[in-house]
């Protein structure tokens, strides 16, 4: 038993000395290629075995021939181990290099394409993560392009819509200044109308900027959907009579919601104004409210004839106004973007779908617990 303990002690001391030396070498080459590190690890393992064997051999006073045999066996094992380590490390380095090249093309703005030949489990996991990140960045780039396109369209349309009333205001003010206006009071009334129109556009721009900046402050309170819809119908009644459109409350359930009354009135008001202006005379705009498994759904259905399927995904984009025939005379394409922003600030969602003879805008709000 004592001999076994001595053998264990001598082999441990020899292997420990080799291990400390190997750890020092690994610290020196830690920034080098993986091939060097693997070679050092294998060399340390073989050296530790050889050092332990030599230490035990010296303690056991082996003869020279037996010691040479043991040393030869360890040397052959070292050669095979180093060769295997070199092959393995070169294979791993090649796969790592291929993954690096693929990641470089991905970083240059392209899509990540995983190397054709698979690597280790860790490299395969890294490749999957890079592919998932590439997909997310591609979606982000698409959204950024769409947003930039919307911004450019918005700037162009706002510039056009501002230029028209400003030109009219300038012409009428010059006519009044020169005293050539045949009916000054009519000019003054028209100037006031154009000023209110400009004020509405500036107000929409300010509201949209608050939504995009995330500074829209809500003051939610518990109220009935019936009261919310009733106020919106009353506010849009004059515009509906002017356009010869009937407003109908279709199945409004008196379910409670917790919303900012002012902002949600603006949501319903924008939806009703768009619906009335797009519905022909003698048409009908229906407003409904009901509870669903997803929440409380408010709907506004018009008789516009429908929206082209390719335009449905863009309806709520900033600046979208559709075809010229569907564009309100004073619209800048901000109303529906404001609707979506306010609804999402309430943790809800806004969608649109085509129905028979028109389209239906639906706003889904979270259900209030009883």
From TrEMBL:
<dbReference type="InterPro" id="IPR036890">
    <property type="entry name" value="HATPase_C_sf"/>
</dbReference>
<keyword id="KW-0812">Transmembrane</keyword>
<keyword id="KW-0067">ATP-binding</keyword>
<protein>
    <recommendedName>
        <fullName>Signal transduction histidine-protein kinase/phosphatase MprB</fullName>
        <ecNumber>2.7.13.3</ecNumber>
    </recommendedName>
</protein>
<keyword id="KW-0464">Manganese</keyword>
<keyword id="KW-0597">Phosphoprotein</keyword>
<feature type="domain" description="Histidine kinase">
    <location>
        <begin position="157"/>
        <end position="369"/>
    </location>
</feature>
<dbReference type="InterPro" id="IPR050980">
    <property type="entry name" value="2C_sensor_his_kinase"/>
</dbReference>
<dbReference type="InterPro" id="IPR003660">
    <property type="entry name" value="HAMP_dom"/>
</dbReference>
<dbReference type="InterPro" id="IPR004358">
    <property type="entry name" value="Sig_transdc_His_kin-like_C"/>
</dbReference>
<dbReference type="Pfam" id="PF02518">
    <property type="entry name" value="HATPase_c"/>
</dbReference>
<keyword id="KW-0472">Membrane</keyword>
<dbReference type="GO" id="GO:0016301">
    <property type="term" value="F:kinase activity"/>
</dbReference>
<keyword id="KW-1003">Cell membrane</keyword>
<dbReference type="InterPro" id="IPR003594">
    <property type="entry name" value="HATPase_dom"/>
</dbReference>
<keyword id="KW-0808">Transferase</keyword>
<keyword id="KW-0418">Kinase</keyword>
<keyword id="KW-0460">Magnesium</keyword>
<dbReference type="Pfam" id="PF00512">
    <property type="entry name" value="HisKA"/>
</dbReference>
<dbReference type="InterPro" id="IPR005467">
    <property type="entry name" value="His_kinase_dom"/>
</dbReference>
<keyword id="KW-1133">Transmembrane helix</keyword>
<dbReference type="InterPro" id="IPR036097">
    <property type="entry name" value="HisK_dim/P_sf"/>
</dbReference>
<keyword id="KW-0904">Protein phosphatase</keyword>
<feature type="transmembrane region" description="Helical">
    <location>
        <begin position="36"/>
        <end position="61"/>
    </location>
</feature>
<keyword id="KW-0547">Nucleotide-binding</keyword>
<feature type="domain" description="HAMP">
    <location>
        <begin position="90"/>
        <end position="142"/>
    </location>
</feature>
<keyword id="KW-0346">Stress response</keyword>
<keyword id="KW-0843">Virulence</keyword>
<feature type="transmembrane region" description="Helical">
    <location>
        <begin position="67"/>
        <end position="88"/>
    </location>
</feature>
<feature type="transmembrane region" description="Helical">
    <location>
        <begin position="6"/>
        <end position="29"/>
    </location>
</feature>
<keyword id="KW-0378">Hydrolase</keyword>
<keyword id="KW-0902">Two-component regulatory system</keyword>
<dbReference type="InterPro" id="IPR003661">
    <property type="entry name" value="HisK_dim/P_dom"/>
</dbReference>
